[in-house]
């Protein structure tokens, strides 16, 4: 199936959201005069464009109307704004993150969030423009890693699970470069924003890239990675998050029901070639 994307400029979206919060919204806006989110109007969901946005566009086009759900899909190209927009009332939910990322985000940025449901796993992979195997990485190779704590730990764990480094005991779930205990090939780690790792791949010997950014850059996790996370027992599923006051919103319950439906499972399996795996 060819996917029709409704991609809107994030700057315009944020400006429009600011206008709503300033009291310039229409009758259909999902915020009150005080800016607090309500259960009226369309359900505004912040997403990473790929695959989250594509999955929601499929739901919007094929499933939402029959379920009585009106969706507004709001794409973002970073991992911070979908949470801050949820807190300021410009969104009712988001769908882009894992539990470990959310936990770290709350430590660093504060805010109150409610994890609702896991939907899919995007296997984290190691990619390279210059070598076809980890065995070909030179001593002293520069490895790009994410600079946010959850994905940095996850990337280092991928390298450790495959015997390239070892991590200091007791750092499970929170490892940083300082916790690399054994590095026999003297790798250098280059922390970057997660969204930049794929577009700057040529500047490193290899980089650990999140599945959504890999797919968005034309990389196939199944075919192009030189290392790939295992799905079994993986705690890093992406899921739906909202605020505590909206946790029982019936629109969100309907969204979760659709996201974990057989139709969405089939859509994922047919469109992402193993780069996105259902978690339900």
From TrEMBL:
The protein's name: Lipoprotein
rRNA-binding among keywords: no
Localization of this protein: Membrane
SUPFAM superfamilies in UniProt: Periplasmic binding protein-like II
Native organism taxonomy: Bacteria, Bacillati, Actinomycetota, Actinomycetes, Pseudonocardiales
Superkingdom of source: Bacteria
UniProt GO cellular component terms: membrane
S-diacylglycerol cysteine lipid sites: 24
Xref: Gene3D superfamilies: Periplasmic binding protein-like II
Signal peptide from the UniProt entry: 1-22
Membrane topology summary: Lipid-anchor
InterPro entries from the UniProt entry: Lipoprotein_NlpA
Family: Belongs to the nlpA lipoprotein family.
CDD domains, sorted: PBP2_lipoprotein_Tp32
UniProt KW keywords: Lipoprotein, Membrane, Palmitate, Signal
């Amino acid at each position: 199936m060819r996917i029709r994307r409704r991609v809107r400029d994030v700057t315009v979206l944020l400006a429009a959201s600011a206008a709503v919060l300033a009291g310039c919204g229409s009758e259909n806006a999902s915020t009150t005069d005080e800016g607090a989110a309500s259960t009226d109007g369309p359900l505004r969901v912040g997403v990473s464009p790929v695959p989250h946005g594509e999955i929601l566009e499929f739901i919007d086009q094929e499933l939402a109307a029959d379920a009585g759900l009106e969706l507004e899909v709001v794409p973002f190209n970073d991992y911070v704004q979908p949470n801050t927009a949820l807190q300021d009332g410009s969104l009712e939910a988001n769908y882009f993150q894992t539990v470990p990322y959310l936990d770290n985000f709350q430590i660093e940025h504060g805010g109150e969030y409610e994890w609702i449901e896991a939907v899919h796993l995007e296997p984290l992979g190691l990619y390279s423009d210059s070598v076809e195997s980890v065995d070909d990485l030179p001593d002293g190779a520069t490895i790009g890693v994410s600079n946010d704590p959850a994905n940095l730990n996850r990337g280092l764990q991928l390298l450790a699970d495959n015997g390239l480094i070892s991590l200091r005991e007791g750092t499970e779930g929170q490892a940083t470069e300082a916790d690399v205990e054994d590095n026999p090939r003297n790798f250098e780690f280059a922390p970057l924003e997660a969204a930049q790792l794929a577009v700057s791949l040529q500047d490193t010997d290899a980089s650990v890239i999140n599945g959504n950014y890999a797919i968005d850059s034309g990389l196939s996790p199944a075919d192009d990675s030189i290392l790939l996370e295992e799905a079994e027992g993986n705690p890093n599923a992406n899921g739906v998050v909202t605020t505590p006051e909206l946790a029982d919103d019936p629109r969100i319950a309907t969204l979760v029901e659709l996201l974990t439906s057989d139709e969405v499972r089939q859509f994922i399996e047919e469109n992402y070639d193993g780069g996105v795996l259902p978690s339900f």
